[in-house]
Amino acid sequence: MTQTIAPHAAPLTAVPTPASAPVHRTGLRGALSRTPGRLRVAGVVSVLAAAAVGVIGLNAGLAQSEALSDADADTTQLVGIQDVRNDLVVADATATNAFLVGGLEPPEQRARYDEAVASAANGLAQLAGSNAADAELLGQATAGLTTYTGLVEQARANNRQGFPVGAAYLDQASSVLRSDVLPQLDELVQANSDRVDASFDSVASVPWLLALGILALAALVVVQVWLARQTHRRLNVGLFWATVLALAASIGGAVVLGSAAAKAGDARNGPYDATVSVSEAYSLANDAKSQESFTLIKRGSGAAYEEQFVLKTDEARELLARPTVDPALAPLLDDWVASHQEIRALDDAGRWDEAVALAISEEPGAPNDLFEAFSTAASTSLEASAEVTHDALSGSGGSSVLVGWLMLVVGVLAAVLSWRGISKRVEEYR
Length: 430
What we know:
- By secondary structure, the chain is an all-alpha fold.
- The protein has one domain (38-427).
- It contains twelve helices and no strands.
- The chain has helices spanning 27-32, 35-99, 107-130, 135-160, 165-205, 212-231, 237-297, 303-320, 329-348, 352-360, 367-394, 397-427.
- Helix 6 runs antiparallel to helix 7 and helix 9 runs antiparallel to helix 10.
- This is Secreted protein.
């Protein structure tokens, strides 16, 4: 038997891999594995941190300035709407009081009514152009005012001729005013009041934005500590001065923006609160004045109007009791309310003619004279507090913008110093 011998297979020879052969890393991971790469990353972090201080400061300054501007504009709009409302209730109070005279009303009261109506009409037109958001309701109020003045003229015409229907026209005119005009203005007052509150809240919250700068400062400190450990040097001049500048800018910005916020807060809790309170009290008092006249016009059936008089004067008294309000106003209101009680005493005793004579009297110490004293004092107080509020809000916005831009400049300078400080360490590895 023949045997076939298979050829021997050639042995496999392993290719040795030298243990000392280096393994090269590429890309970002490779760069970060070496000290120069880490230094460059630290440089980027420090630059971004320093720049963040400037950007945050600029945004905070601009935001606060805008909030102050909005608060000023919305406050002006609010006061303007309240002025229009006051003009209308003054006109209505004057018309109803003049109606008690019978026949041709006194010229001075007619002039006062015409002036109040003209002021209200002009105010409505100006306010509609000041804020587009209020234009629709202001248009409705203007239409209602036209209807109101038309009814008042019909009431006057009938009253001059001695027709009893004149009282019905006057009653209808007053109803139109309180259903088609004043509610729209009250809604606008509330809307603008909400906007003012939101703007004040924004002014107060802006300084807290600078708290974000603490994170940026912390990043600069962390980079310096890491760099000191890597290079065995305690201080990097560029990073040190960058940190000093960023810290100084943050503290300075916080002081300026915080001061502006505190000033706005003082205005909010002081003259602004006084302006709103006195304006509302003045409007309530004039509304009560109309109710006083209607209690007499209705001749024995005006109990509902007397209830409204008491309600509105009580509300006005509460508003005038606020600590921000001129304390001289409340006693003036009380003097007029006390004189009203004299009118009611005469009417309740069946002495209607004497009650009317007292109600329309222009003699010193008469109800109309006392009411005029209160009105004059309230108007003067309103103008003063509104002006103080405007000055407080308009005077702080400029400083907020200025400190914002200064912080941006300082942030950029700190970023440049940071990069230069890191670059010197990178060059040492070349």
